[in-house]
Amino acid sequence: MQLITSLDIRKSEYLSKDRFISYHHQLRLMFTLGNQVQNVLEIGIFNSLFTDMLKRNGYDVTTADIDSQLKPDIILDLATDFSLPKNKFDAIALFQVLEHLPYEQSEQALKKLAEATKKFLVISLPYNTQFLALQIRFSYVYRSRYFSIKIPKFWSEKPISNQHYWEIGLKGYSKNRLLESIANAGLTVKQEFIDPVHPYHYFLVLEKNITNT
Hints:
Blueprint: H1 17-31, E1 39-43, H2 49-56, E2 60-65, E3 74-75, E4 91-95, H3 103-116, E5 120-126, E6 129-136, E7 145-152, H4 175-184, E8 187-195, E9 198-208
Parallel strand pairs: 1-2, 1-4, 2-3, 4-5
Antiparallel strand pairs: 5-9, 6-7, 8-9
């Protein structure tokens, strides 16, 4: 796996408009959980923007990453038999992380994260589709309206990023397979969301089953 600190960020996708759309939804979905969440663990921190914004809004945030150069609170490799404190974090957040592991390893990581979280996992994953999205906005209407069509690339096995082992929508990695993995980990989908302007990031708020506590 290529470490994020090895990239030339000034030339990378991480400064794109689409990336900031995703930051918006990361925060928005966390905020929708309200007073149920105070302690958050973010795994895969990159530039700490998400963590910084949570802290500015009164959250207690712990960071974890495989890359020691990012100076996380916890050095964590999801590909290993890792351990985390049980029932310490109300929510564990990891965005565009699990696809950097082979799918079977990501399933095992998901199970261990489900055991570790007190209440929620808030995640995003790449969703590889062919899509058409049209935005309509009027000067006197606050919110835009959208028309969108998405077709998963079920005929292809090639992820958009060469750093990814898999992406939802590709051959062998259907949305139904992901939902089955989520259920097997002892989690229930509380919310799911795809921004029609940037449908590559598929957001899920997962709630820990009571029987998994």
